[in-house]
Design brief:
Elements: H1 3-35, E1 44-47, H2 54-62, E2 67-70, H3 73-82, E3 90-93, H4 102-108, E4 109-115, H5 118-133, E5 141-146, H6 160-172, E6 176-182, H7 191-208, E7 214-216, H8 223-228, E8 233-236, H9 238-241
Parallel strand pairs: 1-8, 2-3, 3-4, 4-5, 5-6, 6-7
Helix pairs in contact: 4-5
The structure holds pyridoxal-5'-phosphate.
The site of pyridoxal-5'-phosphate has 14 residues, from strand 8 and helix 9.
Keywords: Pyridoxal phosphate
InterPro entries: Ala_racemase_N, PLP-binding_barrel, PyrdxlP_homeostasis
Modified residues (N6-(pyridoxal phosphate)lysine): 50
């Protein structure tokens, strides 16, 4: 094979690999919905493309996906720029975010899943309003509140006691829209009890904020349990993309 034939063959192989993984994964989500007595289609897949190149996102776009999750601001901002001719992509910021990156992320993010403090919410509100002003976005920034299921401040997430106040702040912010909740189960916890607790917090939130219907929960290893407990969107990296070159992100 010539060099260019090799490149084409590699791209074809990656397309086949991602298409196969996607099929298996959609089947898993479907089966989990049925097992939980939920409507198949009531849970969305958010492919998590961190550590993988924009070329992979383009392949998944070709396979019909329109939402993608990224966890590192710099890497994401680069990919968004590379793919900016695909106007209908909805980018989700799912990782920890520093306040000084709020302005940049507010330019490209449809939804931020990882808001866990009043200061970050304030920075994102300002960023979203500035982006609206500059014509860089057309609607408010959708925000999910990341809740801590073990009250360990090191791992991120707002504690139960501060959740109502943060939710009210986001709901009142002109540049933000309160979308719902997100959580990552504690490393050593039983996912079932963690997701059950998350479901309770979501029910309480919905009583105050009926529009906050999104529940972002479930990853490659625990999506069945999350779906059983009411997840509306699963964030899946490894089971779709393969093993990440570095796993600390
Ligand atoms: C990387 C990441 C995921 C995806 O995890 P996998 O186990 O690879 O599916 C989900 N959520 C967040 C916040 C992540 O950073």
């Amino acid at each position: 094979m010539t060099d260019s034939e090799t490149v084409v063959a590699q791209a074809d192989a990656r397309t086949a690999e991602l298409a196969g993984n996607l099929d298996v994964l959609l089947g898993r989500i479907d089966a989990a919905c049925r097992a939980a007595g939920r409507e198949p289609g009531s849970v969305r897949l958010l492919p998590v493309t961190k550590f993988f190149p924009a070329a992979d996102v383009a392949i998944l776009y070709g396979l019909g996906r329109r939402e993608f999750g990224e966890s590192r601001e710099q890497e994401a901002t680069g990919k968004v720029a590379e793919l900016d001719d695909r106007r209908d992509i909805r980018w989700h910021m799912i990782g920890r975010l520093q306040r000084n990156k709020a302005r940049v992320v507010a330019r490209w993010a449809h939804t931020v899943h990882s808001v866990d403090s009043e200061r970050l919410a304030t920075a994102l509100d300002k960023g979203a309003l500035a982006a609206l002003d500059a014509g860089e976005r057309t609607g408010p920034l959708r925000v999910l509140l990341q809740v801590s299921l073990d009250e360990d401040p090191e791992r991120g997430g707002v504690g139960q006691n501060d959740l109502d106040r943060l939710a009210d702040q986001v709901a009142a912010a002109e540049g933000l829209q309160l979308g719902g909740l997100m959580a990552i189960p504690p490393l050593d916890a039983d996912p079932h009890s963690a997701f059950a607790r998350l479901a309770t917090l979501h029910t309480l939130l919905l009583a105050r904020h009926p529009g906050a219907t999104e529940l972002s929960a479930g990853m490659s290893g625990d999506l069945e349990s999350a779906i059983e407990h009411g997840s509306t969107v699963v964030r899946v990296g490894t089971a779709l993309m393969g093993t990440r070159p570095i796993t600390s992100g």
